[in-house]
Amino acid sequence: MTSPLRTETTAYGIAFIGGGNMASAIIGGLRKQGMPASQIQIVEPWAEQRAKLDAEFGITAQAEPGATLSSAGLVVWAVKPQTFRQAALQAGPHTGHALHLSVAAGIRSGSIAGWLGTERIVRAMPNTPALVGKGMTALFARPAVTAADQLAVERVIQTTGEYLWLAQEEALDAVTALSGSGPAYVFYFIEAMVQAGTEMGLSRAQAHQLAVETFVGASALAKASSEPLETLRERVTSKGGTTYAALTAMEQAGMKQHFKHAMHAARQRAAKLGDEFGAD
Ligand SMILES: NC(=O)C1=CN([C@@H]2O[C@H](COP(=O)(O)OP(=O)(O)OC[C@H]3O[C@@H](n4cnc5c(N)ncnc54)[C@H](O)[C@@H]3O)[C@@H](O)[C@H]2O)C=CC1
Ligand SMILES: O=C(O)[C@@H]1CCC=N1
């Protein structure tokens, strides 16, 4: 099989169906790793978004799928779960013998296989830190996907950060609730810390820097350390001190329970998206 990352400028390597937030994050990674704009096609019906893609990546997106899609070795489906079926029926017939990679939440690979008439399907759940090369992606391949196909997907995804493979497709719904949606939880938490900081008299800029760097630093420490998270937390928590006061208030408010409840809601929503917008 020809690699989707082949370098001839006459042929397009990768086609994106949908050129929104997640597609942009992946394209950003590919462009930063030196993939020429000429090897990336994008189908994006929204004119304003096409102008943005042109300005950001120097890629002229197509408003509708056309014959050039058949030259793509890899087709990345980055449309909303609600519009996947319609997009698949529109663009699918133009895609030739490609390997397909879906980043849509919830939509199961069996539905996609039915719409596209091929078993060469990999599902991915990336996240938006991909835009700065710090993404985390979980991948699942249908049984017909070969080792070479998997390698081709890895070569694309590794331009955006780290990845892991899942043996069970169902686990993707849990991944969606954890790392797919996770950046939003982190931003929400940072927003709360910035708000509290400004309420306590810090400037917004100071509170922002302090909160963001605290997340960067704590994440780096958690990643570098071989110790359990609990130990790292306890090391910050002096007996009768300030952290203890804060964590006690969090426990009393049931924050951990609320947080777990929220993540279960996200996973259930992922499963429901598959039921609602997948094939029967
Ligand atoms: N945003 C995120 O953090 C993540 C999103 N995802 C998944 O990625 C997918 C895309 O999400 P976003 O990029 O956030 O959405 P988005 O709304 O930013 O992008 C979707 C794009 O698809 C375009 N589109 C609509 N109908 C189309 C069609 N028939 N053909 C081609 N393009 C069409 C829209 O104009 C839009 O620009 C979703 O399925 C979502 O579940 C997965 C992981 C993280
Ligand atoms: O909110 C969503 O449905 C998508 C999937 C994971 C992150 N964003």
TrEMBL record:
Places the protein is found: Cytoplasm
Q: What domain of life is recorded for the organism?
A: Bacteria
One Pfam family here: F420_oxidored
Classification via Gene3D superfamilies = NAD(P)-binding Rossmann-like Domain, ProC C-terminal domain-like
Residue limits of the Pyrroline-5-carboxylate reductase catalytic N-terminal domain? 14-93
GO:BP terms for this protein?
L-proline biosynthetic process
What EC designation does it have?
Answer: 1.5.1.2
TM region(s), chain numbering: 12-30
Q: In which pathway does it act?
A: Amino-acid biosynthesis; L-proline biosynthesis; L-proline from L-glutamate 5-semialdehyde: step 1/1
A GO cellular component annotation here is: cytoplasm
Q: Which reaction does it catalyse?
A: L-proline + NADP(+) = (S)-1-pyrroline-5-carboxylate + NADPH + 2 H(+); L-proline + NAD(+) = (S)-1-pyrroline-5-carboxylate + NADH + 2 H(+)
Question: Where do the annotations place NADP(+) binding?
Answer: I17, G18, G19, G20, N21, M22, A78, V79, K80, P81
Q: What does this protein do?
A: Catalyzes the reduction of 1-pyrroline-5-carboxylate (PCA) to L-proline.
> Per its record, how is this protein called by name?
Pyrroline-5-carboxylate reductase
Name the species this protein comes from: Polaromonas eurypsychrophila
